[in-house]
Amino acid sequence: MIDDVLNTAEEKMGKAIEIFGKEMAGLRTGRASPSLVERIRADYYGVPTPLNQIATISVPEARMLTIQPWDKSSFPDIEKAIQKSDIGLNPSSDGNIIRLAIPELSEERRKDLVKTVRRREEDERVAIRNVRREALEKLRQMQKDKEISEDEEKRAEQDLQKLTDKYIEQIDSIGKDKEREIMED
Q1: CA distance 127 to 65
Q2: N or C, where is the chain less crowded by C-beta within 10 Å?
Q3: Is there a contact between 168 and 122 (Cβ–Cβ < 8 Å)?
Q4: pLDDT digit string (tens) for 96-129?
Q5: What's the total number of domains in the chain?
Q6: What is the extent of the structural domain holding 20?
Q7: Which stretches of 26-149 are DSSP H helices?
């Protein structure tokens, strides 16, 4: 029973880290990366579809992304989706391929991005702590209902805290790596 609570908490924390990692990968730095556009959804026959499922995304050079739709009829929808997205890039195309030039970041923009990273880090820390709080409530309820002893509850709380610390360290590590990447481009 205690294992169930801890496993559920660890699973939720792991998902939070996974989502955070994907978000950080999609955050624009001065370098081209397919992850910048993979989460963008274009209307494909009436269904919002991720770009990586309807086009080939490649990086021919450090500051250039190319998107080659498999179905030529999806061209205008892909361009429209990129323009509407929050990445702040304008696509240019020749009818066969869509190009996205990644401009170099200004110092001010870099600082704004670092602030965004830190804000997202804090949001994820709060999410991890909320998972911990939920698990603690379950453990305390189990102890109150005499399903587990007080000693078992205390040990489980310590294990839960170790889990929480481990995942918060991962958040900090991902955030620091992203900050370094933003500032050195």
Answers
A1: 33
A2: N
A3: no
A4: 888 888 877 778 878 888 888 898 899 999 999 9
A5: 2
A6: 2-25+106-184
A7: 35-38, 75-84, 107-144
Tokens 């939920």, residue located: 134
Last residue of a domain, one of 101, 125, 143: 101
State the DSSP string of 25-56. HTS--SS--THHHHT-EEEETTEEEEGGGTEE
Question: Residue 154 corresponds to which tokens in the numbers above?
Answer: 């205390």
Report pTM: 0.66
- Mark whether 145 and 179 lie in a shared domain: yes
Coil vs helix vs strand at 60: strand
Give the residue carrying structure tokens 């040990």.
Answer: 155
- Phi/psi for 133 (5° steps) reads -60, -45
CB 91 within 8 A of CB 80: no
